[in-house]
Amino acid sequence: MRHGAVRIVAFDADAGSEQRLIEVGLHIGSALTVLEHDMASGVLVAAGDGRVAVDPATARRICVVRLEEAFEAMTIGDLKPGDRARIVGMGKGMPGYRQRLMAMGLTPGVEFSLTRVAPLGDPVEIQVRGFSMSLRKAEAELLAIEKLP
């Protein structure tokens, strides 16, 4: 990991290790601040409202980019049908909408594709986690995404 503000872009770990990282708040798309970096003793990062210590072996398996090098966050409105994207965060908005989106599985790190857009732009249909979901434009705009190649 690098010092300063970074975003996790990938894990080079087995499924069990990746799940443990997710459980402590480190997931693909997470923005972190690296507070201390010593490959002999580990890495200390600020993630959300807490701090997480990562051992050296695990730290080497977390791929990050400096935040200024990361893709600029977009919204679903910036995509065309057929485009693929990854959720990198949730925008500020009505807490009820945020909770509803997260309950439906739209969490940071999840990849999806935009399948259809209604003629007036509302609603949009996405393919996520093996099923189709329609979202109202106001709900979809809460998702900060990065377009995938």
Question: What does this entry look like structurally?
Answer:
Helices cover 17% and strands 42% of the residues. By secondary structure, it is an alpha+beta fold. The protein folds into two domains: 4-69, Roll (SH3 type barrels), CATH 2.30.30.90; 76-148, Roll (SH3 type barrels). Strand 8 (124-128) and strand 9 (131-135) form a beta hairpin. The longest helix has 9 residues, at 15-23. The chain is elongated, with a radius of gyration of 16 Å.
Outline of the structure:
The chain has 4 helices and 10 strands, in the order E-H-E-E-E-H-E-E-H-E-E-E-H-E. It is α+β, with helices and mostly antiparallel strands and 149 residues long. The mean pLDDT is 77.
Q: Per DSSP, what share of the residues sits in E-state strands of 2 or more residues? A: 35-45%
Q: Please report the distance between the alpha carbons of the first and last residues.
A: 24 Å
Total domain count:
2
**Please, what is the oligomeric state?**
single chain
User: Structural class of the secondary elements?
Assistant: alpha+beta
Total helical elements: 4
Q: How are helices and strands ordered from N to C?
A: EHEEEHEEHEEEHE
Number of strands: 10
For the record, the CATH class of the largest domain is: Mainly Beta
The CATH superfamily of the largest domain turns out to be Ferrous iron transport protein A (FeoA)
Mean pLDDT: 77
Percent helix, as a range, is: 10-25%
Uncertain segments are none
